Amino acid sequence: MRPRAELRAAARQPTRWWWLSILAALPMLISVITLPATGFFSGDAGIKLLQANAFADAGAAWPRRIDYPAQPIDPSGTFTPRFLLALDRGLVAIFPYPYPLMSGLLARVLGPRALRWLPAAGALLTALAAGALARWRRAPGAAPLAATGVLLATPLGFYGAAAWGHAIASAFVVAAVWLVALGAFGERMRMRALFAAGLLLAAAAWTRTETAVLLVLALAPLSAACSFRRRLGGVAIATTGAATGLIGAAAGQYAALGVWLPVHIAANVTRHGVLSARWSASRWAAIRELFAPDVWCAAAVVLWIAALVSSVWGRERWRAAAARLAMTAVAASLLAVIVVPAWRVLLLGLGPAGAFPVRTVTAGWMVLATLPLVLLDSPGCTRERILRRLVGFTSAWSVLAYLAISPLPGGYQWGGRFFLPAAVLLCVLLAVNLHEHRSRRRSESLVIGAAIVSGVAVQLFGLALLHHVCRGNARVAQAFATRTSHAEVIVTVTDYLPELAAPLWSERVMLDARRSEDGEALLARLSRAGVDRWTLAEVVGESSGALVARRTLVAEGAARWRWTGTEELALTGRRLRLHRYDSRARPDAPLLVDAGRASPE
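-> structure tokens emitted (601 positions)
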């Protein structure tokens, strides 16, 4: 069957099962509709919004730049927010450009909510590709189960509602794995499917950099059971597709931003040099956060790795041992994903963010997704072994290669966002094996059921946390909009404040003083620009930099600003302080202090 016909066939499965997939997508879709359009889970989405708005500007010329309203004060871009890079004639976001570009073009029709709808579409396409991959195993009834599982029991639904590109990249990766299986491991080599798989892997690499390690999937035809000449031809066509995609994406970036090399890679290598001591330390930090993000998760993750290796490459007796390891891992992960958060909520009275540390769930999807690999009693048919090896290799390689080469230690928000394709692919096997191997011991069924219930509970809780954080972050921009005036200069000393206030970028003049080692340099620029009134914004306990709120701030040349009051706002677990300064206030004038607020030292 041709790839297009195969995908259509996967979508035409019995409706009595597909309605489960529709229900599984509802929590994500409801979140996309009800979340604030410009309130984000992470501040870096605000920078993507700025780049998307630049692409959405129908009257601007290409390549596109982000306007810098503070340029008259800061022409060199010294005080720009993090994640922005000064190029000729403006700024660009250092993140991969495809997601902001697609969002910007879509925003002309849907407005700023396009930044959410695009990941949601990516999640739905990922679910459809997961169904097609399940059907390739000749398990047509498992296709809707796979689509349901990846939407409801993995972090896919969370990232489909968050303003990030991980769900989009996952759609490319899962579709590429399906095309590799279809093109390389069928009765005959399908060159067009392998070429398309290479293209999709290149698109994934340009959308989310961590997926670049999966470009080695272009070499998968080497393991096909066919002649050497056919295998070599399959590798050549898949590699050609990947190279074509990479070159085409580079040309697209040049047209969009005016530079060929990926901006995000150049910026990260500059800050985190691969051979530097900081890079070496970040490897240990990344491994520690993956293996033991929480004391309750450490045992589960170690057992997961042992079970995965044993089940994919082990013999039958190893698989039996791996099954027992998985049972123990499930028990450990249940403590991490259900018992501990419930204890924190009921007994300690903590809110969503404090009750369920976002890194704790890294173990949840691992154990859940490994169950199909360790609960089988036989090696299975040829197709089953091929799919096991392909999915197992893809999943393990995506985790281990990232840990080895990435200069960044982070990425473990809500289930490990850098490893989302691995979670989705392993969950496909779970759906297939649940459908095909229905006769099992009652203890095994109980373990499987508990793991699935915990996975669903975790992801629903994740959507609740997403609402909690996004609405809280949206209030930062609302506070700036209501508490400051149009075109007012706002100096921030907390790193993420300019990002959360990105919707007001064109209406306020924002300067980020967090990175400045000399606060007097910024004061001197304000003096030269003739700024007589401005606001210093900080989050209590999270400010950094040399510029500290005081009763009097003096710049070079004796320019002087008097503090005229401080306003403190409670914003969902944090306190935002706005310190007002005015050079027109008389030295002997009484200080205008808001009632009940302490003055700076």
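The chain has 21 helices and eight strands.
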